[in-house]
Each structure stands twice: as C-alpha cells, then as structure tokens.
Amino acid sequence: MSYRNVVVTRFGGPEVLQVTEQSLRAPAAGEVRIKVLAASVCRPDITVRAGESLYRGTPLGYKPPFVPGYAVVGDVEAVGEGVTEVAVGDRVGALTVVGGYTETLYWRRDRLIPVPPTLHPAEAVTLLLNYIVAYQSLHRSAKVKRGETVLIIGASGGIGTALLQLGKLAGLKMYGIASKSKHAILTEYGATPIDYHTQDFVEVIRRLEPDGLDVVIDGMMRLESIRGALALLRRGGRLVSFGEPAGLPALLRILATMLLVNLLPNGKSFKLYGTSFYFVGDRRPFLEDWATLFALLEEGKIKPVIAKTFPLLGAAQAHALVESGQVVGNVVLVTPELL
C-alpha cells in the first residue's frame, strides 16, 4: 500500500514540485493517520519552496527535499496506541507549516483541530490559516470596536478577503489597498478601494479621514508601508502587522520601529501578529477562535472566496497561479472527488 505527496526537490519555481510515492504504514503511538481532503495554498508555501523564507540558512529553515503545505483538513483513517482524543472517521484539521501537500498525513494527537463534518473541506481549510490570522488580528491584537475606521493593507488575497468579511461583520468602516483589477471584491464588502499602483495611500487617507484612523491591519510587512500606516493613526490608534518581511535585516528594522512606537507617549501602538504562539504558547485562544469561525461558516455569516481549486497533487499549477498576481481570495488543493 502506498500514497503520494508533493516534494520540493530543490529551491526554485513551481517546476521543482514533484509527485513522489511513499509507503503507507500504521500510525505510531500517539499519532493519527489522516486522509487529506483539502490543503490550502498560501504565501508561506511559495516562499519556502522558492528558498526565500525568513529562516533559510538558519537551523529553523527547511532544506530540500521536503513536502510543503501549511494547513490541511481531512478524515482520521487510523489511530495509534494511546490516542483517545479522536476516532476513525472524525473530521480534523492540522496546522502543519510544512507537510500538507500529501494524500496521507501522519500527525500528533495533541495538534489536531476539530472540524465540523458538515463543512466543505475546501472552505474549512481556509479558516485554519487565513481566517485565523484575520480574526485574531482584528479581535485579539487590534481589539476592534463597531464603528471604528480601519485600513487593510493587502486586501484581496486569502487573508485580505477574510479581513473584509470579518470587518464587515464587525461593523467597521473599511479602506483597502489592492490593485485596481481587484477592487470589485473590496467594494462588494463595503470597503473603499485604494490602488497602490497609482495612488499614495497616505495622501488618500489623509484627505478622506483628516482625524486619522483607529486601526491599520498590514499584511505586507514592509517598513515603508508600516511608516505610512503609523503616520495615519490617531491618538489611541493601533497597527497590527503580519507576514514575512524581506529578510532578517528588514525584520530587525521593523522590530526597532515597533519598540520606538510603543515607548513614545503618543498613544499609538504597534503589534506584530503570528501563529507561532499556537506551537509554543497557549493553544486555547486558537481552538476557541477556530470554533467561532467554523460556527460563522456553518451559519452562513462568512463565505470564503475561493478563486480556484486544483487536484491535491496539482500544486505546481496552483503555485504558478498564485505567483501570477491575479488571484482574488484563496487557492485550495482538494482530492479528486471534491473537484
């Protein structure tokens, strides 16, 4: 018995993603074997494949060959000795960081996310990374309040469209930065679009919101946009930034800026958000927020924007589409029966 996965054979473009075959085995003690139904395709998958991730060349970096894939949803196929948290047939998710582009996933029992079986796997998997980033940036980091004015930097991708939906649900007045061809999705969710190719977002916001913004959610993590965002905040305004900076030197400059902003007596705050606390800190806020997001999806209050689905082993084509810059929303890999 065997299964297939997608391997980064060397750093490079989508062509370095190759399908390989692995032997199926029984799960080890404390381990679960999952039949993967859906895997998200996200920006960290692209940068780790290209060898452009923040930690390349450090002990935290990944070296080929490895299987990319940050998040999956699937059904429990078998459980190892001592596993009592789940049973065969249960629908679960996993935040894998790498390893998700596979037909079969072996995963730790204490890192499983309960997923309602009523949800479509392609929609549910977008909640594991893109929606949790959006939800926690808004509600746990920025602590937004109904009626506040918010700018979203990077408003058209998987996280950006999640921010638009959740921001509308929270009763926020929204501005969003995206290329002009993607403005329709911003308008659909009530956000005022700003074209970063032809408009200076600082000038536009200063004209439209002379008293300043309450919150900026920045998904680009570039120092220039961070400085512009900070200049737009009113007293008491909050900036939350997430994503991958352009290398360790850039990260150090961003951290220095954050330290300075939070020390100055101007009432502004600057936070960096990341999912790393799920792995090294208290996982309860994540599990609570995923449960909230699953409920919102079940109730029809959110609806992930899925630009395209590909076969589970069609990661190379999916990566090429994401890198084209034409995607609005999410790209997802799914098993053939879900296409």
Describe this structure in words.
The chain has two domains: 2-115 and 305-338, Quinone Oxidoreductase, Chain A, domain 1; 129-276, NAD(P)-binding Rossmann-like Domain (Rossmann fold, 3-Layer(aba) Sandwich). Helices cover 32% and strands 27% of the residues. It has helices spanning 43-50, 121-141, 158-169, 183-188, 201-208, 223-232, 248-263, 276-280, 284-298, 315-323; strands at residues 2-8, 17-23, 31-41, 71-79, 91-95, 104-108, 113-114, 149-153, 173-178, 192-195, 213-218, 233-241, 269-272, 306-311, 330-334. β9, α4 (183-188) and β10 form a beta-alpha-beta unit. α2 packs across α3 (158-169), α2 crosses α9 (284-298) and α5 packs parallel to α6. The chain is globular. The two termini are 24 Å apart.
CATH architecture call of the largest domain: Alpha-Beta Complex
Overall tally of domains: 2
**Strand element count:** 15
Number of helices: 10
Q: Calculate the terminal CA-CA distance, rounded to whole Å.
A: 24 Å
According to CATH, the homologous superfamily of the largest domain is Medium-chain alcohol dehydrogenases, catalytic domain
Radius of gyration: 20 Å
Mean of pLDDT: 96
Q: Biggest sheet, in brief? A: 7 strands, mixed
Strand content: 25-35%
Weakly predicted, low-confidence segments: none
So what's the CATH class of the largest domain?
Alpha Beta
Q: Looking at CATH, which topology of the largest domain would you report?
A: Quinone Oxidoreductase, Chain A, domain 1
